[in-house]
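Known limitations

Structure tokens in this collection are predictions and should be treated as such. Users comparing against experimental data should check residue numbering before alignment. To illustrate the layout, the record for NDK5 kinase is reproduced below. The input appears on top and the generated tokens appear beneath it.
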Amino acid sequence: MQMLMPEPQIFVERTLALIKPDVVDKEEEIEDLILRSGFLIVQKRKLQLSPEQCSNFYADQYGKVFFPNLTAYMSSGPLVAMVLARHCAVSYWKELLGPSNSTRARRTHPHSLRAIYGTDDLRNGLHGSLSISSAEREIRFMFPEVILEPVPAGQRARDYLNLYVKPTLLAGLTALCKEKPADPM
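Generated tokens:
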């Protein structure tokens, strides 16, 4: 008797991780902890953001008392941006990070990354996306060339096609028509 089994599926979620300027010298150590925690580092880049780019990245924090200090801190030196992948990546990464206030993290989550590498509420060493939708937005910000799965649908798909696919097709088909090869394949 043949049993009906569902097709195997791989549930992989992605999240953004940032190693902030004050702990970027601990990059290898932090990456090792990330890998040992079951994450795959899909993409990685080292960059330095301008205060304006930081303001755009943290736009949801605009108007809060700490916002000017946050943008100054995040633009004070190079940082490492990574796309991490694994099952339930956003929640596992938040768990590994611990509370955003490093002082509180040392009391309540002493083995978390922010307890180990952070110094206070602002300089907490690392950043993690709060949700799947913020992860998607933040990954696009740090890695504008990346294509995130699932493939966009609806208006986002039409925008992508109009911006990237149609111009390439138009140029290729125009060149093909000009050449008029006997065997176009």
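For this record: The chain has a mean pLDDT of 88. The radius of gyration is 21 Å. Please report discrepancies through the issue tracker.
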